[in-house]
């Protein structure tokens, strides 16, 4: 691949990269943010995009080189010297000129420049320096105290978007002018700079001091010290140019040639976008503390409600511990199928019902039997009602969460934080108590759903843990050995030892003692087992209440504000990404060491 083709391909890749970046800038600018600092940044980027369009449309047009400096610094004289003839007025009448002068080569197509040509006096001069650039003799920035319609300052600000290179002209008397320096801060962004001290025939060389003054904010490769009038006389006399003026003209003709247009304009564009995005980031950083306070307060509103309900829920859950224990024991017994110890657990879990059922044996008449049946039915209904009341009390915890006064207080507090953060107060002010109450109920529904699911999960998990192999081996083994002895020894004595070995039959006392030992051992095993279940249940219920207190709800009391905060966070991340991308592209673009530029953020 030839060097020419490779260079053109690199330029096309660079342009494609910039086009994609500008599309992302466009998407950022039109995504209306509800946060005022970010909205300001988006408006600024939207204005930037208008200026980038002029740069894109003029990518291959001649570079626009504009003079910039205070009154009486010799800008017009410098322009005349550069083109070799007097094409623009200079001297005392210049500050009163209200139309800038555009000096172009006769062969230059003015339509390519994209300039508002009606605003200029156009002078066509056949000068070598004008083959690849046009000169723009701008009004002075310090002839008006304020920018008004038609003032020199207003004209200057209107011309800056079309300027690619600024010839910053100053003198021994003007280089410390605060007014001109302040205007340069705005003008230099998105432009290359060439620094020139004029009146070399009259003034002292102040370039070293001027460079020290410029160094903190600008890259200053070189400052030229020229005598414009002498250079013009040398050209009229057909003499060779000498000194810094000759080097200045050579720099303009070499560094601003047609082959450098794309590089210079891309550098200007990326400098401008980077500076603009840095300003947007400054807006965001200034408003970030207030936004952070808003987000923290917003996150705490629903959490306060959850904390209040969690404390009440824990008390209610622990007060219904017997209900959860019965459910847990029943679940374990069901998982163990029909085994000796599971049968004991079922007896333990239904002990009250069995005792009540045994009372039927004492009935002596149908009337007594009916009364006992009614009593047993009443007990069963009471147990079911107690279970339902326990679940109802858990649901009633939500009703004790936030009353109307607390909801209104939360709304007033959030309104203050919203105003401080720069959000639209409508996000919370249009929410009446009915809407707030509905949002509170939505939060409560999520909370209770988590609580009910948590209890079911605890019971299922504990049942699984205590239904494993080793717990079954331990409890079933102990009870099985005892039952094997109590049942097996009398069977051996009755069927083998007595008829074949002439052993006496075991007395009935053995059966009574055996039954007593079976009851005692079964009771001890059940107590140990239920004690472990109870300890695990209480611990897990307490953990459930704590976890519910710490969990974050999917939606709070102000869902519109929460959505606005999420959009704002997304916009901040998008801005940071664009700034990093712009800075990276600018670093990849080689700098022209002969031209200065603004290094101020």
Ordered list of secondary-structure elements with their pairings:
Layout: H1 3-30, H2 36-57, E1 63-68, H3 75-83, E2 101-104, E3 121-124, E4 133-137, H4 152-159, E5 165-170, H5 178-187, E6 192-197, H6 207-214, E7 218-219, E8 223-225, H7 228-236, H8 243-255, H9 261-319, H10 321-335, H11 340-349, H12 351-358, H13 366-396, H14 404-421, H15 426-429, H16 433-465, H17 469-501, H18 508-550, H19 559-588, E9 597-598
Parallel strand pairs: 1-4, 1-5, 2-3, 5-6, 6-8
Antiparallel strand pairs: 2-4, 7-9
Helix pairs in contact: 1-2, 1-19, 2-9, 3-7, 9-14, 9-16, 9-18, 9-19, 10-11, 10-16, 10-18, 16-18, 17-18
What structural class results from the helix and strand content?
alpha/beta
Lateral strand order in the biggest sheet? 3-2-4-1-5-6-8
> What is the total tally of β strands?
9
| Overall number of structural domains | 2
Mean pLDDT, as a whole number?
77
Radius of gyration using CA atoms only: 45 Å
| Largest sheet entry | 7 strands, mixed
The stretches of 5 or more residues where confidence is low (pLDDT under 50) are 395-401
Span of the ends, CA to CA: 40 Å
Percentage beta strand: 5-15%
SSE topology string = HHEHEEEHEHEHEEHHHHHHHHHHHHHE
Number of helices: 19
